[in-house]
């Protein structure tokens, strides 16, 4: 099932759609927490603070959108209120672990430097993914005249990607080949996540 077709199926059913929004909210929140966890004790840039704040806001915004479907849906991040909860929880964590291992093997970094490098490369990979995911989702929302909107997130994620590229330029003049390898890791994990959602959605019986 192609991603577009998967989202078309998801938005047909309010409860499934709510779980999808909640899943995105969970991942935005997890991303924000990981950005904060990568902060140096004293040397925290304005951009890093901005990213953490905006990812938290995206998590809040997506969670709030669920109320447009039904105020009783998805009040927590419990497994039963997420799509493919195990794969969802593993996705970002696995990317972080695998990226750190790759960076350790290819750069001479202290513990603090590794945390910052992981922030740069993992966030870059997630922003590249967000630039693909949210426009497709918004296209389906527009087509179905949904009350849900993610246009504001699209604009901010585009800005995040540009900021990450600027920071990577400062980190290393040879960052692009390494970023491509991190993107390959992310692509594999993303496919596993989407396949798990496809399997779960396929079992649902829509009226």
Keywords:
0% strand, 7 helices, 75% helix, globular, mainly alpha, 207 residues
| Residues in helices, as a percent range | over 70%
DSSP strand tally: 0
Low-confidence stretches: none
Return the string of H and E elements.
HHHHHHH
Average pLDDT rating: 92
Structural class: mainly alpha
How does the major sheet shape up? none
- Tell me the Rg in angstroms: 17 Å
Number of contiguous helices:
7
Shape: globular
Beta percentage is: under 5%
The end-to-end span amounts to 20 Å
Description:
This protein is mainly α and 207 residues long. The chain is 75% helix and 0% strand. It has 7 helices and no strands. The protein is globular.
Task: Record the SSE blueprint.
Layout: H1 3-10, H2 14-37, H3 46-65, H4 85-106, H5 111-143, H6 151-171, H7 175-202
Give a brief rundown of this model:
The chain has 207 residues and is mainly α.
